[in-house]
Design a protein that fits this description.
The longest helix is centred in the first third of the chain and has 18 residues, at 59-76. 50% of the residues lie in helices and 13% in strands. Helix 3 (23-39) runs antiparallel to helix 6 (79-88) and helix 3 (23-39) crosses helix 7 (90-104). It has a domain at 152-308: Rossmann fold. A hairpin with an 8-residue loop joins strand 1 (151-154) and strand 2. It contains 14 helices and 8 strands. The chain starts with a helix and ends with a helix. It is α/β, with parallel strands linked by helices and 308 residues long. Strands 1, 2, 3, 4, 5, 6, 7 and 8 form an 8-stranded mixed sheet that branches.
Length: 308
Amino acid sequence: MQDFLAFSQGPLIDLFVDGTLTLKELIVGGNAIDFTHLFIYKELENETDREILANLGNKDQREAFSRRVQDSNRSTYSSATVKRLARENADLLKELTRIFDSRFNPESVHISTEELEREWVEWERRIATRFMDCPIAYDIFRFMFKYITCCMKTNTYCKSKRSFSFRFTSDILDPLVFDSHVHGIFFVNGHYSLGTHMRAGDIARGGLRLLRVNKSNHSRELDGAVLLNYALGPKAQRLKHKDICESGSKGVVVPNPAYAHCSKDSLLDYTEGILDLMLLDERSVVDYLGSGEMIFFGQSGATSIGAR
């Protein structure tokens, strides 16, 4: 029950109610949908964009082009499109859950890197056949597998949690858009809010930005959250810290529109989710990173105002 309460209402609830998906499949599938919508980019056939970016003359032009690429990705792989295709292919969410469980469930026999690679080959073969005439669906489910391969640890199997949290490598970021080094990425998905945290180095500090949302602007703010997080943290904050030992980091929290007024609960979803991956319970968290991490939480001006 606690897992269900920590989960945001999503597009798969009715599939759980009618028995199509189990609770575990609902949670893994729902988090995979939100992850994919936030981070997906076009991995194939983007050589033209690379050539254009390489030939642009100055930094401002390159940054403007990168923003256009990011906007294009969000438009092509919209939240509605990702959710619709996921619902229409519930069997793939079941398969994704099986692989995720074999990788991160501490009570399972964990599959090796070689076995995971074989699972990927079979997954890619399956979606290439199914979506031969639907390249957008192919791109979405191809990227969705990064939810497993790029995840280093998750609190999904912790008995007590407020939200679901994941630590990803920078391989989930589009190299055309995110051209500065990103050391690590946290993704938190809770009942009250969703958020990301990026930092430019292992030792880094920076604040949190709690966005102000309502029903009319939520989708726009969510679409821009990852690029905003990158601009505020690994880029701007790193430059501000150029003369000190700590590099730059930043967190961005996007409240769910139904709870836009619940600033404290939104921040608690975010902070407690990340703390689950800092203070590891080895009985509940499988850690493929293999090294400890520390996160500095501070407030930015926008967060301090929004949290009053």
